[in-house]
Amino acid sequence: MRGIVEVLKVQQGQALIEYVPILAFVSIIALVILGVIGMQANNNIGLVIPYFP
Predict the structure, then answer these.
(1) Where is 36: in which H helix or E strand?
(2) How confident is the model at residue 48, as a pLDDT?
(3) Is the pTM of this model over 0.85?
(4) Which end of the chain, C or N, has fewer beta carbons within 10 A?
(5) What are the strands, taking DSSP E only, across 1-53?
(6) Phi, psi of 46 (to 5 degrees)
(7) Distance in angstroms (rounded) separating the CA atoms of residues 37 and 39
(8) Domain boundaries along the sequence of the chain
């Protein structure tokens, strides 16, 4: 039983390492989409830095 648990732990670690870039990619895309929507809503499409306070 202990051997099975060790194998599962290793597989979970590898899965996390594989999913981290995917999660980062998705989160970056979501931030870009939100930024574009915010810029269009404020009619600041030509503004390079949309996050001024």
Answers:
(1) helix 2-41
(2) 55
(3) no
(4) C
(5) none
(6) -85, -5
(7) 5
(8) 22-53
Full pLDDT tens readout for the chain, 53 residues: 677 777 777 777 777 778 888 889 999 999 998 888 777 766 655 555 555 55
Q: Tell me, what DSSP letter sits at residue 50?
A: -
* Residue 8, both tokens: 């599962």
CA angle 38, 42, 29 (to 5 degrees): 15
C-beta neighbour count of 49 within 10 angstroms: 6
Q: For 43, left (φ over 0), alpha (ψ -120 to 50), or beta? A: left
Cα distance between residue 6 and residue 29, in whole Å: 35
Tell me what pLDDT residue 10 has.
73
Helix (H) or strand (E) segment spanning residue 39: helix 2-41
